[in-house]
Amino acid sequence: MNTFHFISLVVFITFATGFTVAAIIWGINHVFTLDVHRVEINSVNFFNRIFNNRIIKAYKKILDQYYKSDSQKKDLENRELYTYYHGKN
Amino acid sequence: MEKIDLSLLFQGIGTLLNSGTTLFLARTGLMLLGLFLIYMGKKKVLEPLLMVPMGLGMATINAAVMILPGGKQGNLFVDPLLTEPADLLNILQINWLQPVYTFTFSNGLIACCIFMGIGVLLDVGYILRRPFLSIFLALFAELGTFAVVPIAAAMGMNLRDSASIAMVGGADGPMVLFTSMVLSKNLFVPITIVAYLYLGFTYGGYPYLIRLLVPRHIRGVQPPKPKNSIPVSSSHKLLFAVILCVILCLLFPVAAPLFFSLFLGIAIREADIQPVVDFVKGPLLYGSTFFLGLLLGILCEAHLILNPEILPLLLLGILALLLSGIGGLLGGYIIYWFSGKKFNPVIGIAGVSCVPSTAKVAQKAVAEVNPNAIILQDALGANISGVITTAIITGLYVTLIPLIT
């Protein structure tokens, strides 16, 4: 085996071993990270999602009710009332 | 009254004047170099912890040459070339640093102690967050360790010596010491001296390499923080140390003492055994580094340094470190381009595993351009990975080369 072949072999094994070690570290990190922080982050995300959905639903409900009512007329009345008290400018 | 020979009375001066021009110049030059190293250490250009005892040792050993019984020139510090047990036993009772050299330096104990200390200082959380990135950078920063082997072979060195000097590119003193001790006992002393001398120079030389290869506007890039970054618990880090130590020792038993020492340090830290942590990171680490520096200085004796094989070693050692630095920056550039120019390529140089000097050098180079940019965490991740990749290469060289030569 000449020097070039030897170094090629060393480079190949080093890269393979290096990335294997990285994969092991990643695995350890992923499998054994069932600690409080991860649970906390997941639960915060979960509750955020539910909470956001509820807000959106409630907002839609109010909006529907607003459109179903005579909203444009009410807006006009409000504007007239505003003009009456504060003048046009 | 009989005439007194002054050169015998003041033997340091006598041996200096009577030993020929080459030796005179070499001794004087080494004394001046020793003083220069102390100055550079004091100015913090080079690592003072290593350079001050090394410089003083170098200056002193070249001054304190005397005529030993039998007419041979020598000193009362250390004789590194003794191999016969009977001679060694005699000299252990005479040379005051011989016990330190024989029982800690030449068997690698001092390297293991330093590794243990480094382990205690390491926070492996950095590598746990981005393992692939850190290992990728560290692998590129081994360019010198790979490339110098064929270059040294082309210069006429055998594979064992080539691999030993190429390990300087890994910038990991204990690994160089270990490899040369196993593979080329004849060059153990000069290679170790060259390695540690240059490791001090990474602190002074790499900032210039960064300035040369990384334009100013790229140097100031702040890399993005990892998404959903979960703080790594100490039990998690301890688990990492235990599993990785066992796996690496299974793969490379030859480098097991070094792996064990490093991961033992990490395990002690993460298990929070505070009295031992304080001992290892204080007296053990600083004591070992001090004696290492002292011994390296003492080993820089003119007779040893004038070995004709030392000049190629000096050239190859600096070439290995230079190539490793370039390789690390190249790895950084690859990530820079693939991340859409969000990554700072300077982090790559921290893959050269001179813990924690190269990480500090990288952070300092970035802070000069952008004081708000913090890259130290990523740099330390690459730095720790550098130790692992250098250990892998050490294991490979030490295992493979005896099989094929």
How far apart the termini of chain A lie comes to 94 Å
Oligomeric state of the chains present here: heterodimer
**Strand percent estimate of chain B:** under 5%
Following the backbone from N to C, one meets helices and strands of chain A in this order, namely: HHH
Helical amount of chain A? over 70%
Mean pLDDT of chain A: 72
How big is the Rg of chain B? 22 Å
The helix fraction of chain B, in percent, is over 70%
Strand order of the largest sheet of chain B: 1-2
Give the biggest beta sheet of chain A.
none
Structural class of chain A: mainly alpha
Give a short account of the largest sheet of chain B: 2 strands, antiparallel
Low-confidence stretches of chain B: none
Number of helical regions of chain B: 21
Low-confidence stretches of chain A: none
Globally, the shape of chain B reads: globular
Structural class based on helices, strands and sheet pairing of chain B: mainly alpha
- Quote the distance from N terminus to C terminus of chain B: 64 Å
Largest protein interface, residues of each chain: A-B, 28 and 39 residues
Quick overview:
The complex is a heterodimer of chains A (89) and B (405). Chain A is an all-alpha fold and 89 residues long. Chain A has 3 helices and no strands.
Topology at a glance:
The complex is a heterodimer of chains A (89) and B (405).
Chain A: H1 3-31, H2 36-68, H3 71-86
Chain B: H1 6-9, H2 11-18, H3 21-42, H4 48-63, E1 66-67, E2 73-74, H5 85-92, H6 98-105, H7 109-121, H8 125-129, H9 131-140, H10 143-154, H11 159-166, H12 173-183, H13 188-213, H14 216-219, H15 234-251, H16 256-270, H17 274-299, H18 302-305, H19 310-338, H20 357-369, H21 376-404
Antiparallel strand pairs in B: 1-2
Helix pairs in contact in B: 3-4, 4-17, 7-12, 7-16, 7-17, 9-19, 9-21, 10-11, 10-19, 11-12, 12-13, 12-21, 13-17, 13-19, 13-20, 15-16, 20-21
